[in-house]
């Protein structure tokens, strides 16, 4: 993916609303779901490694495509991977704020068409016909849908999420369950993507939502997790904790080789270019650009993702497929 430096983030379009929503009066936004960059409802939310949430485009446009780490606008924690959209949060927002979310969808799509650069299309692929019908009905009536526990299940334990942590790929796990994924490297059970860096922090926006909407179930999950943690402490340090310490040290050492005070020391950076698989931005070392993808933003993979033959779709809705076999290799210099 190549950075569109001349474009503004498609988060606000003046005086545009859906005609069918003019009389609904449903413009209320839960402050917990307000993006700290555009000050509007999260749209296609991504969760940074620090646990803070922002819109897809807000996160991308706030990242540094140069040689420095990017920083979370709230806590200033550094990161250099552009996360995938959190589909669970996306559907929650669609159900709880159907009118405003559809307004945001229209606004963003118009800006994307103008910029000829698109975010991933999620709704049709995620929702069943029944769910889609319910969403359309809620939109017509200007009402939100009832959220059930089945909407907020952990990817691993299949129970209601407790202290949810979102991986770089966008899949959501309980904080405790994330530790069970470690086997030398933190890898998602669903898409098999490796999570860069250390363990992700708890997404407090989602955690607070769960505690508020499911207080009894949340209390039960809290008691069960605390009891399990007590038993684990009596049994001694867990294997995953030891692996986490080693992994964090290894990650820090590797990062120290690449950057000193934000300046590249070992490998050249591909300025303004990120990996469409793992999301590292800017890309370091070798870069592979697909010559069969015709989109202006391009389709690029870092050396690690190219070698692993990543089959993940592009982060900007590129029509890349495994049949595309023509690549241009850019060196490290």
Key features?
Znf_ZZ_sf; two-stranded antiparallel ribbon; metal-binding; E3 ubiquitin-protein ligase PRT1; Herpes Virus-1; 333 residues; 3-stranded antiparallel sheet; globular; zinc-finger; alpha+beta; 3 domains
Structure description:
- It comes from Acorus calamus (Sweet flag).
- InterPro entries: Znf-RING_euk (IPR027370), Znf_RING (IPR001841), Znf_RING/FYVE/PHD (IPR013083), Znf_RING_CS (IPR017907), Znf_ZZ (IPR000433), Znf_ZZ_sf (IPR043145).
- Keywords: Metal-binding, Zinc, Zinc-finger.
- The protein has three domains: 143 residues, Zinc/RING finger domain, C3HC4 (zinc finger) (Herpes Virus-1, 2-Layer Sandwich), CATH 3.30.40; 99 residues, Zinc/RING finger domain, C3HC4 (zinc finger) (Herpes Virus-1, 2-Layer Sandwich), CATH 3.30.40.10; 67 residues, no CATH class.
- About 18% of the residues have low confidence.
- The chain is built from ten helices and 13 strands.
- With 333 residues, the protein is an alpha+beta fold.
- The longest helix has 21 residues.
- The radius of gyration is 21 Å and the shape is globular.
- A hairpin with a 6-residue loop joins strand 3 and strand 4.
- The strands form six sheets. The protein has a three-stranded antiparallel β-sheet.
- Helix 2 packs across helix 3 and helix 7 packs across helix 8.
- The two termini are 19 Å apart.
